[in-house]
């Protein structure tokens, strides 16, 4: 069974350095969307990091996902990962979690 996770991405380098790897980071996230594990992602405001929402079988899988992110591999960001159970949600989320 899949669980929903919110990943807070905290930039650890200046934004100018982060932007140099933005394309490879987004390409990595696209693979997650193609696999059907990501629900949403984007930059935080102010732009000091991002948020990623996805489904994983457990926290270890979410951590592995974060470790493979080019932002992490280039020491540009660190992840803070939270699991939660969406008690109330839009109908489409049930299908997303079960797929």
TrEMBL record:
SUPFAM superfamilies: Dimeric alpha+beta barrel (SSF54909). Residues 5-84 form the YCII-related domain. GO terms for molecular function: hydrolase activity. Belongs to the YciI family. This is GTP cyclohydrolase. The lineage of its organism: Bacteria, Pseudomonadati, Campylobacterota, Epsilonproteobacteria, Campylobacterales.
